[in-house]
Design a protein that fits this description.
The protein is of the alpha/beta class and about 350 residues long. The protein is built from 12 helices and 14 strands. The protein starts with 9 loop residues before the first helix and ends with a helix.
């Protein structure tokens, strides 16, 4: 195993924690980033600049103007084009780190897809904006023995920890169940400070780098909490935090990997919008769908999506059958609009 021959990574190679062998490991590594919003976009840029050879970036959403204050890599042109975030990350990283192969997966990550993606990764980075996706990742990574790094940001505070299956506690050891949705602050209700994102991302990606360079024994030692406004930082030692009765990493039960069988809808973090997910895989012909509506009703159209005016809302339909209904926050109303305009 040899490191790259030029001096691009010379300052990084000088670090005893990485060295030439660690840099070569990064070049050979494949990292999965789930979510390309605030945390995921920063992680993608940092890992690509560090020399990671391949990134798989999964995100269900498009770039919007409200993303620009806190999310890396995106531009006003991306928002105007309604470009999927994963595609925008791929395009920008091609100019920053051309040796890094970036695969953009414009999908909602669910039980039907997660295991195949996790199985091919050397490490997984959490950039999700909801507990359900994090528990899905936890189940898949524990089942397949893949390390992953959790992080979350609300307001000015942020958390991160690494999960190394078989050695550290998993997410459900610490948080057995997600708190009730109505009791959980979100970026929509509490806001997010961009510096909190950047600060915790540095620690999250450092944990990922430990994993990818082969120093996995040094990862997952603590749950780190930061408040960038007050300057407070706390570190909770995790050496004795693994639960003997954990339903996931001890009892090996993985309920989040069980497939859905009906169309569902859920409000999205940070915006007045609802995502609708079909209960079974669907491949939509967006051209045929667009042909059903007058041009005046079509707001945007590109290779990845079709956006329509739908009564009091806007309906963004993706080729995999998903839709984001903007302008409302009622899941039942979103399902009704989806059935009316998409018909699945």
């Amino acid at each position: 195993m040899t490191a790259p021959t030029d001096d691009r990574y010379s300052r990084q190679i000088l670090l005893p924690q990485i060295g030439a062998e660690g840099q070569a490991r990064l070049a050979a590594a494949r990292a999965l980033i789930v979510g390309a919003g605030a945390l995921g976009s920063h992680a993608a840029e940092t890992l690509a600049r560090a020399g990671v050879g391949r990134l798989v970036v999964v995100d269900r959403d498009i770039v919007e103007p409200s993303n620009l204050p806190r999310q890396a890599l995106f531009t006003e042109a991306d928002a105007a084009e309604a470009l999927p975030k994963a595609v925008a990350v791929q395009r920008r990283l091609a100019a920053i780190a051309s040796a890094c192969r970036v695969e953009a997966v414009v999908e909602h990550l669910d039980a039907g897809r997660v295991e195949a993606l996790v199985a091919e990764a050397d490490g997984v980075i959490d950039g999700a904006d909801n507990f359900e996706t994090r528990y899905l990742l936890n189940d898949a990574c524990v089942k397949l023995g893949r390390p992953w790094v959790y992080a979350g940001v609300i307001g000015t505070t942020a958390l991160t920890m690494a999960v190394v299956p078989g050695r550290t506690p998993c997410l459900r050891c610490l948080f057995d169940e997600a708190p009730p949705r109505e009791e959980t602050p979100t970026c929509d209700t509490a806001g997010v400070l961009s510096t909190a994102v950047r600060a915790i991302s540095a620690f999250q990606v450092t944990e990922a780098l430990k994993i990818l360079v082969g120093r996995i024994d040094e990862a997952g030692r603590a749950l780190l909490r930061l408040d960038v406004w007050t300057g407070e930082c706390s570190r909770t030692d995790l050496n004795d935090a693994r639960r003997d009765d954990c339903p996931c990493c001890v009892q090996r039960r993985f309920p989040f990997l069980e497939p859905r069988r009906q169309t569902t809808a859920a409000a999205l973090c940070g915006r007045q919008a609802v995502q609708v997910m079909p209960g079974s895989p669907a491949a939509l012909d967006l051209d045929s769908l667009a042909g059903r509506y007058p041009a005046a009703q079509i707001v945007a159209r590109n290779a990845y999506l079709l956006r329509l005016r739908a009564d009091e809302a806007e309906l963004t339909v993706f080729a995999d059958g998903r839709a984001i209904v903007s302008g409302i926050d009622d899941p039942k109303r979103a399902l009704a609009l989806y059935a009316r305009y998409v018909g699945h």
